[in-house]
């Protein structure tokens, strides 16, 4: 996992993930798990049809922002 992401988790209040259907976030599970371990809420803007890969995001945050 990219060390910059892990470093930034320490100063972020939340994590927002969106890959704009470009499959950039191939290991989104690792990003979600790292954010969870750091105690950060995870907001996901899902793309595509495989929503299982986004498991672990905070549905309540997404709904409150209309995502």
Beta-strand content bin: 5-15%
The pLDDT mean sits at: 79
Determine the fraction of residues in helical runs and give it as a percent range.
25-40%
> What's the number of helices?
3
Q: What low-confidence regions span 5 or more consecutive residues with pLDDT below 50? A: none
**Domain count:** 1
Q: Sketch the topology as an H/E string, one letter per element.
A: HEHEH
Using only C-alpha atoms, the radius of gyration works out to: 11 Å
Describe the main β-sheet briefly: 2 strands, parallel
Q: Please count the beta strands (DSSP E, at least 2 residues each).
A: 2
Q: How would you classify the helix and strand content by structural class?
A: alpha+beta
Spatial ordering of strands, largest sheet:
1-2
Q: What is the 3D form?
A: globular
Q: What gap, in angstroms, lies between the N and C termini?
A: 26 Å
Q: Would you give an account of this structure?
A:
The chain is an alpha+beta fold. Helix content is 34%, strand content 12%. The protein is built from 3 helices and 2 strands. The protein has helices at residues 3-9, 28-37, 59-64; strands spanning 15-18, 42-45. The chain has a two-stranded parallel sheet. The longest helix is centred in the middle third of the chain and has 10 residues, at 28-37. The chain starts with a helix and ends with a helix.
């Amino acid at each position: 996992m990219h060390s910059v992401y892990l470093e930034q988790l320490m100063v972020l209040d939340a994590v927002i993930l969106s890959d704009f259907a470009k499959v950039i976030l191939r290991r989104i599970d690792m990003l979600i798990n790292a954010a969870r371990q750091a105690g950060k809420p995870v907001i996901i803007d899902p793309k595509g049809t495989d929503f299982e890969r986004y498991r672990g995001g905070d549905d309540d945050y997404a709904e409150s922002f209309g995502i």
